[in-house]
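R.M. (postdoc): so does anyone remember the format we settled on? I'll just put the structure tokens first.
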């Protein structure tokens, strides 16, 4: 018999009475988990992991309507959710299905790019087979958007921006589901292709979507490469170009275009009095601004361009008139929308938000506390670009946040001897990397009332760490090499990224 979410068959057990007692010895010796019992509603003596995560308040089962037509995800067996038994032991702040209590902790990750992959790697290393990781990621190759503008300048580099995912796991019991999360409850996630995947801990690492060309065209690599080809050819042919938005993306593109002398006239429209934003020191903003002006860039500052409501403003590439709020009007052959990303968080709308507002209304970024838990949800984390922590969103930050959450889960598992639920175990605080981040976390935490005083790990400002002043990077080759390495490949590209 196969366990519902495990690939391997279970070893035969000699003494069934030892089943619960031996869980952690069994796991720490890195064997396959015990098979559990098919009839999951049967009440049994809680084992240590159950004690750790707390016991059920309700043995709520899914209504048949709710589950109709959906499949429970299982890498090895394809069976209807009707045979699935939801969590037996739950608490307000943590639940572990009986399946998991008999095996490893089920950690579900939404999004398999920088944040999700660093998290997976670190967690595998820390917890080994004590966790069962499932990643939900629609793409089979991840798109390295940080170097998207290098492919606008040279489309031949675009083929290197797609990194295969197949070598991501060290342990074969972990798996990836190539689909999109469409709905999240506090017990399970539903995917676009009809799977229902239960979790004990959920990590949302679904990032954000930037305007074209910094996003994939659908899920199609060939089409996305064709878009880069188009941008490359038409940028070279264009005389006038406008970049709308002079934040880090717009500034990076401007620096690249001016260096390559891609067009005769380049204008940047930015809604602040200086290029970039408050995440960068004023001296650096001045420096970059002077550089752009000295290289021939025209700046329209403290003004906003009016974007026509197209699906992808600026694409298909064609000549357009651009008008601004202050009444300026000019014609350009090509327009780049660099107005910033929108978070990929739609799937959270089914979570109960009556007590806490968990999503920033304008752009959909997820509100988290210092532990990177979604406000009001102890066992759901949001890491990387998708959370609403202000400051510069970068791969390094995604990695730091991944590490924080992985250590929290590691600690939860290791506190197995304490008669306690997760709400009594101190999670790890993310080392806050700038003042803007501090302010956003502080605001988020105002809304979150912690019942357990042990959660108070001191003053929030004690968590601030000093980081180097940020700069705009136009050389991405080392980042790209690292991403390939993370995914088990050697980067062999020879272009200028
Ligand atoms: C032009 C540009 C230049 C940049 N330059 C740099 C730089 O020089 N250095 C640097 O460190 N950073 C840079 N960045 C930022 C960096 O790219 C991000 O910080 C990083 O990609 C964040 O990683 P992430 O995993 O949080 O999110 P993402 O990279 O956005 O990945 C999210 C993943 O989640 C998946 N996903 C989305 N929705 C769902 C769903 N519903 N279900 C399942 N999966 C889903 C997506 O397919 C994707 O794979 C740059 C970004 C841009 C746009």
């Amino acid at each position: 018999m196969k366990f519902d979410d495990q690939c391997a068959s279970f070893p035969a057990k000699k003494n069934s009475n030892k089943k619960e007692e031996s869980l952690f010895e069994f796991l720490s010796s890195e064997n396959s988990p015990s098979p559990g019992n098919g009839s999951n509603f049967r009440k049994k003596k809680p084992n240590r992991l159950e004690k750790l995560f707390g016991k059920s308040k309700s043995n709520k089962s899914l209504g048949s309507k709710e589950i109709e037509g959906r499949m429970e995800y299982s890498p090895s067996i394809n069976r209807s959710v009707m045979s699935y038994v939801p969590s037996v032991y739950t608490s307000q702040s943590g639940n572990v299905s009986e399946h998991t209590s008999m095996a490893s902790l089920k950690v579900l990750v939404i999004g398999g790019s920088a944040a999700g992959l660093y998290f997976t790697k670190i967690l595998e290393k820390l917890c080994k087979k004590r966790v069962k990781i499932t990643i939900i990621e629609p793409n089979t190759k991840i798109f390295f958007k940080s170097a998207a503008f290098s492919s606008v300048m040279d489309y031949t580099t675009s083929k290197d921006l797609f990194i295969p995912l197949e070598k991501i796991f060290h342990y074969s019991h972990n798996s990836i589901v190539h689909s999109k999360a469409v709905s999240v409850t506090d017990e399970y996630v539903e995917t676009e292709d009809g799977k229902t995947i239960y979790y004990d801990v959920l990590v949302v690492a679904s990032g954000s979507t930037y305007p074209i060309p910094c996003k994939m065209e659908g899920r199609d690599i060939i089409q996305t490469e064709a878009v880069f080809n188009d941008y490359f050819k038409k940028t070279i042919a264009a005389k006038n170009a406008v970049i709308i938005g002079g934040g880090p993306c717009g500034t990076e593109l401007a620096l690249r275009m001016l260096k390559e002398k891609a067009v005769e006239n380049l204008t940047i429209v930015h809604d602040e009095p200086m290029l970039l934003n408050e995440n960068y020191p004023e001296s650096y903003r001045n420096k970059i601004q002077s550089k752009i002006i000295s290289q021939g860039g025209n700046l329209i500052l403290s003004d906003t361009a009016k974007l026509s409501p197209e699906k992808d403003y600026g694409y298909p590439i064609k000549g357009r008139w651009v008008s601004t709020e202050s009444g300026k009007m000019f014609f350009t052959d090509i327009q780049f929308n660099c107005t910033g990303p929108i978070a990929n968080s739609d799937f959270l709308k089914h979570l109960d938000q009556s007590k806490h507002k968990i999503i920033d209304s304008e752009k959909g970024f997820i509100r988290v506390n210092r532990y990177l838990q979604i406000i009001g949800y102890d066992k759901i984390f949001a890491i990387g670009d998708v959370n609403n922590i202000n400051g510069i969103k970068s791969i390094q930050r995604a990695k730091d946040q991944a590490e924080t959450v992985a250590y929290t889960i590691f600690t939860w598992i290791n506190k197995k001897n304490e008669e306690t639920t997760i709400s009594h175990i101190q999670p790890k605080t993310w080392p806050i990397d700038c003042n803007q981040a501090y302010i956003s976390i502080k605001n988020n935490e105002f809304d979150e009332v912690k019942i357990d005083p042990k959660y108070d790990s001191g003053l929030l400002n004690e968590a601030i760490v000093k980081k180097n002043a940020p700069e705009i990077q136009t050389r991405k080759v080392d980042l790209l090499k690292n991403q390939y390495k993370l995914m088990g490949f050697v980067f062999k590209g020879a272009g200028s990224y």
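R.M.: ...and that's the designed sequence above, right after the tokens. Also worth knowing: The chain has a mean pLDDT of 82. Residues 221-340+472-486 form a domain with the FAD/NAD(P)-binding domain fold (CATH 3.50.50.60).
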